[in-house]
Amino acid sequence: MQNPAFEEATNHDEFKELVIAVLNEKDQQEAEKMRKSNPLYDFYADLPEDYDLRLKSEPAYAENMAVQLRHQILDQNASDINRLAALAQLQMNLYILNQANIPEYDYEVFKNVLDLADNSHDDKFKIQAIEITTQSPVLDYRLAERFTALLEQDSNEYIRRLAGQGLVTQFYQAQSERSDYRQQIAQHILSLYQDSADDNVYSVLNEMIGNENMLAELQKYADGGS
Q1: Is residue 142 within 8 Å of 181, Cβ to Cβ?
Q2: What is residue 40's DSSP assignment?
Q3: CA 209 to CA 25: how far, in whole Å?
Q4: For 14-53, what is each residue's pLDDT tens digit?
Q5: How does pLDDT run across 151-193, given as a tens digit for each residue?
Q6: Which label site among 5, 73, 190, 222 has the fewest CB atoms less than 10 Å from its CB?
Q7: Helices of type H across 154-178
Q8: Phi, psi of 71 (to 5 degrees)
Q9: Which residues of 168-193 are buried (b: 16+ CB within 10 A; e: fewer)?
Q10: What whole-number distance in Å separates Cα of residue 178 and Cα of residue 196?
Q11: How many whole angstroms separate alpha carbon 175 and alpha carbon 26?
């Protein structure tokens, strides 16, 4: 004889499994869709479920990941998108660990990504690469020079604005972290703003630093104030 309660439970379990299978399929489709639309963040789908906790609880694992990612960024044989994705993941790791910097996160990795952007014929890739570099917490005048070249020479208005943002970010970070660099970057930005004959350069910087208070602050630090 059939047991109605047993049959109902069996049907319920089968339905539950079917729903889970459908949801998993949907998640896979969404992940594949994201990969195709923005392959830069393809690495998300391959991370282990406990990735965040392992970074936080296992210092050796976090350090090893940083070394691996830096190696991938500098690897001339890796594809451009994989090298850029490695920098995006390294930045994500720092955010997870609530760190501003680590030895593997230096000027060299950003130089390599900016070189990729300079040599790329893919405008979308170039924009993504420059977006990531302008978020750099690395304070280095060579980065300021690269941002300045983009601001003065690039034909894309959005990229020029990113470059201006990168310069201003260097100044703000130097205020709290490197007083020796603070004066140098303040002088550099003021010189660009006051002396450039390029209307595009002036327009970008005027929007970012053109108010009276910001100019006064830059001038104070450019003169060696604190």
Answers
A1: no
A2: G
A3: 50
A4: 656 666 666 666 655 555 555 555 678 888 888 999 999 9
A5: 999 999 999 999 999 999 999 989 877 778 999 999 999 999 9
A6: 5
A7: 157-177
A8: -60, -40
A9: bbbbebbeeeeeebbbbbbbbbbebb
A10: 26
A11: 48
CA 209 to chain centre: 23
3-state helix, strand, coil in the chain (%, to 5): 80, 0, 20
Residue with tokens 């060299």: 108
* Rounded Cα gap, residues 118 and 133, in angstroms: 13
**What predicted TM-score, i.e. pTM, was given to this entire model?**
0.80
Tokens of 45: 């789908």
- Per-residue exposure over 201-218, b if at least 16 CB sit within 10 Å of its own CB, e if not: bbebbeebbeeeeebebb
Q: Cβ(40)–Cβ(128) under 8 Å? A: yes
Record the tokens describing residue 76, joined without a space.
């001339």
SS3 136: coil
194, two tokens: 């006051």
CA separation for the pair 178, 186 (Å, rounded) = 12
Supply the angle between the helices 212-222 and 199-209 in degrees, to the nearest 10. 100
Tell me the C-alpha distance between 149 and 128, whole Å.
17
66 within 8 A of 74, measured Cβ to Cβ: no
